[in-house]
Each structure stands twice: as C-alpha cells, then as structure tokens.
Amino acid sequence: MGMRSVFTFVAGVALAALPLRAAPINYGNYSGVTLNFQNVTEDTSTEVPQAPLFGAPTLVGDSLVFNPVSFGASSSNGTGADITDGTLAMFLQAKPGFGVHSFSLTEAGDYAVAGTGTSATTAQISTTLFIRVLQINGADVVGPSIASNVNLVFTPTGTPATPFGGQYHLGPDTGIGVIWTGTKSVDIDALIAGAGFNPALDHATRVSVNMDNTLLAISESGTVAFIKKKAVEGLVITVPEPASMGLLFLGASVLLGRRRA
Q: Is the confidence at residue 21, as pLDDT, over 60?
C-alpha cells in the first residue's frame, strides 16, 4: 500500500506534508458482446501517491474481471487503524439492438484476526454501488434522475451480524485465511419501471456505475488484523447475456412518449 500523508507539529504549528494526488487511473474502454464498458477508472483517497488497487481488468464476454494484487489493510500489535479505500467507476453502454437490463457484481478475498485481545481487534469490508441510468432507448434521460444506491452483502456475515455483513472481530470470528465473498445483483429494468417507464418497451442503454470499496483493519497489543481482496478474480462485474429483447419496439416507445403515467 502507498505511503500515507504525515503530519508534523513544530512550535505549536501544524505543518502538513501533503503530496499532490495524481489523477485517477483510467483503464480505457472494453468492447463486450452486447455492450461496451467505457471509461473504466479507479481512484483512491488513501493511497499517496496514487497506486493501482483494482488494477487493469480483463474482458471475458460481457464481464470485467479484476485481479487486485495490493488491495488490502493490515494492523498488528496495536499500531492503530489501517484503512484502504478505492473507487471504481465506469459506464455500461449497450450496443445497437441491446439494452442493459441487469448486472451483477461479485468479489472475494480473505481475512485474519488472531492473538490475545478483545473484539476491538477487527477486519472489515464494505462496498456501496451508486447506479444511475443516463439513457433510455438511446435518448438522454431528462427530468428527475433515475438512480439507486445499494450495498453488497458479505458472507460470512461476521458476529454480531450487520445488515450487509463483512465485519470480523477477534473472538467470535477468530481465524487466519478465512475466505469472504460479497455479491449483489442490480435489476435495471425494475429501476426504470419505478421511474414510470415500461421495461417491455423501454430499455436502459447507458448506465453509470460507481463502486466505493473500503477495507479496515484495527489491532490491539498482542493481536493482528488483516483483510485483502483475492489476487485472482477478486472482483467480477457481469452483464448477463443476452442483455436483450433488443430495441424492437423503439419506434412505438418514442410515439407513446418518454414517461408512462
């Protein structure tokens, strides 16, 4: 992981050594079977200087596969909290004749909490997806935004269980090399239906996806906490094939108007 910013106090005045953050890392565009993954970009506020966390993806059909090699957080012997936060952003652009009806995200890794201490020693992961539909049937969405925020659900859930899991404490969750997984399926058709469109006629053709992924490790004296994404298929974003029905009813949809009562 990158070097954190360091704060030094001299004669009562705080002098902050704040290296300039580099621009986000842009991995470019990837052409799948039914859609294009456009402007695939990652950014981080915890790694200074900017360093890849997710790494460049590999395209497999209509899936993007990321193999992170340095996306982790660790703390030992009471050195305090270590947090690593990375944001992944992209556009899902349907190819002519197709729509984006749903997509899924899965990620995996391992954690360790061990030693002699209390449940204050913890390893945690949380992932939030921010989704926005930008185009329907090839036309920009006007009026209120069609957007949703959702959280991945992690297993094992951790103890005590939280709504989305992913919190592992010394004691109930003690272990080394324990595998965790996180999953979420997003129904884009349901999202546009909730905004008054008819998924039988209307199809999302451009969708913005932003994912905020945070890892946290906290230790006490005599303990260790560690959590990391897997180096192989640590994160996979999949748009099911066919992303379909095409746009056979595009003309009828335009004649019926953009919004349904």
A: no
* Residue 227 CB partners (closer than 8 Å, separation 6+): 72, 73, 74, 109, 110, 111, 112, 123, 124, 125, 168, 180, 215, 216, 217
Q: Which helix (H) or strand (E) holds 212?
A: strand 204-218
Q: Identify which of 112, 122, 108 has the alpha carbon closest to the alpha carbon of residue 154.
A: 108
Whether a cis peptide bond, with omega within 30° of 0, leads into 242 is: yes
Gyration radius of the chain over CA positions: 21
Q: Identify the bridge partners of residue 16 per DSSP, sorted by sequence position.
A: 7
What mean pLDDT comes out for the span 152-163?
Answer: 93
In tens, the pLDDT along 46-69 reads: 876 668 899 999 999 999 999 998
- 243-254 burial, b for 16+ CB within 10 Å, e for fewer? bebebebbeebe
For residue 57, what is the enclosing H or E element?
none
CA distance 229 to 4: 20
Q: What is the DSSP letter of 195?
A: T
How much of the chain, in percent, has pLDDT values that exceed 70?
Answer: 83
pTM above 0.85, yes or no: no
Residue 81's φ and ψ, nearest 5 degrees, are -95, 135
Q: How far apart are CA 164 and CA 161, in angstroms?
A: 8
Q: From CA 91, how far away is CA 55, in angstroms rounded?
A: 17
pLDDT at 19 over 80: no
What pLDDT score was predicted for residue 69?
85
Q: Which residue has the tokens 């006007």?
A: 142
Q: Are 67 and 231 a contacting pair, CB within 8 Å? A: yes
Note the helical H segments in the chain: 188-194, 250-256
